[in-house]
Amino acid sequence: MNELSFLEFFAGGGMARLGLGPDWRCAFANDFDAAKGAAYAANFGAGDFHLADIHGLGIADLPAGAADLAWASFPCQDLSLAGARAGLGAPRSGAFFGFRSIIGKLADAGRRPRSIVVENVAGLLTSNGGRDLARLVGEIARAGYYVSAIVLNARDFVPQSRPRLFIVGLENEGAFSRTAPAIDAAAPAALHKMAAGLPAPVRRRWRWISARPAARRNLDLIDIIDDGAPFDAKSLTQARVNAMAPRQRAALDALIAAGGRHVGAAFRRVRVEGGRKIVRIEARFDGVAGCLRTPAGGSSRQIIFDIDDAKVRSRLMTPREAARAMGLPDEYRLPQSATGALKLIGDGVSPPVVAWLARNVLEPALLRVQKAA
Q: Taking a C-beta distance cutoff of 8 angstroms, is the pair 261, 310 a contact?
């Protein structure tokens, strides 16, 4: 296979680039966040990176010729279940239309990318009753692509539960299927419902992705822990344990009674119980961390619980642990501040998930084009 080229919009720290790997050449990368741009440059050099708001980009800023891929992990704040759910028309998540405008201009100039991937939170499936996703799919279809979507969870590859929706546009339909799969985690009921309700012209360009990841994760949370990281005071750990709901506390006590070492991750949550708001610590000991988020607000930092025989200790997850849970190699250079590092990671895409999508969907389709040329 010849080297494939890509444009990375909303690039952040270049995690899509990491996932695509050495068979792909970055022709252009863009983000408007200077701190993320600095992280990108620290890891890949500044030569490919263009710091600018996507609405201010023109095709003169982009390299000549048609790239094989345009990747866009556009902002999720208005689509996330944890956010205000203002939808695709709100300013932050509406940045998608800046990307769509660039694709249109490239097409007018005879430089339309041969494939596109738009990535966002799984909340996009139900945003505005599914209308936001249908609108986005329609935009991609009208740009001249066959279009499909799949939900991929990073937990199939790394010790983090991180379901994300990937919408894929291809110039040829060879890597897609016309047959709808059974409802499953990768093609949930909301996706089937959205597809069935598409307008006829768009539905004629809708396809399905039949490939599915094998459950092949070979690391658990305990395998990525920094054993040298200091734990918090016993009193703080006890307060966290006391804040667990009865069912969670019983599960913790069972692990203590079982002996051995167990590592789990927890979030601080505010729940309404009996008409009152109560702060709860909600932990999981299933080998994976919860979905990594940006560190806005105290409840967004994950807490590590380490049970070693009868001893229970706790502390905040370190940035390097978060990076490992995302699938970043230890040589990846993180921002020096914990807040900056966690923001970069929480806004990112898991590279092993990108790698799976490239190998199983993008490259087979693009290779057909290379052979036909």
A: no
Q: Which residues contact 234 (CB under 8 A, 6 or more apart)?
A: none
42 and 132, same domain (yes or no): yes
Measuring CA to CA, how many Å separate 205 from each of 147, 191, 364? 6, 15, 19
Q: What angle do CA 14, 112, 104 make, to 5 degrees?
A: 95
Query: In the structure, what pLDDT confidence band is assigned to residue 295 with cuts at 50, 70 and 90?
Result: confident
Provide the domain count of the chain.
Answer: 2
Q: Please list, residue by residue across 198-230, b when 16 or more beta carbons sit within 10 angstroms of its beta carbon and e when fewer do.
A: beeebeebbbbbbebbeeebeeebeebbeeeee
CA 333, 335, 340, 342 torsion-angle sign: positive
pLDDT over 60 at 297, yes or no: no
Query: Residue 332, SS3?
Result: coil
Instruction: Check residue 269 and report its DSSP letter.
Output: E
- Asked if residues 152 and 353 have their Cβ atoms less than 8 Å apart, the reply is yes
Residues 263 and 235 in one domain: yes
368 in the same domain as 308: no
Range of the domain at 283: 227-317
Structure tokens at 364: 């087979």
CA distance 368 to 81: 38
Q: How far apart are CA 199 and CA 314, in angstroms?
A: 52
What is the Cα–Cα distance from 44 to 25, expressed in whole angstroms?
12
The CA-based angle 249-295-285, given to 5 degrees, is: 30
71-105 pLDDT per residue, tens? 999 876 554 555 554 555 655 556 888 899 999 99
Using alpha carbons, list the distances in angstroms from residue 146 to 178, 207, 363.
11, 7, 15
Of 101, 144, 67, 138, give the one whose Cα is nearest residue 362: 67
Which pTM does this prediction carry?
A: 0.93
Q: Are 353 and 48 in contact (CB under 8 A)?
A: no
Q: Alpha-carbon distance 49 to 207, whole Å?
A: 33
- In this structure, the answer to whether residues 313 and 364 fall within a common structural domain is no
The Cα 369–Cα 373 span in angstroms is 6
Report the candidate in 146, 204, 213, 216 with the shortest Cα–Cα distance to residue 184. 213
Examine residue 338 and state whether it is found in any structural domain, yes or no. no
The angle that helices 338-346 and 319-326 make with each other, rounded to 10 degrees, is 20
User: Position 367: which residue type?
Assistant: L
Element of type H or E holding 281? strand 276-284
Query: Residue 266 CA to chain centroid, in angstroms?
Result: 20
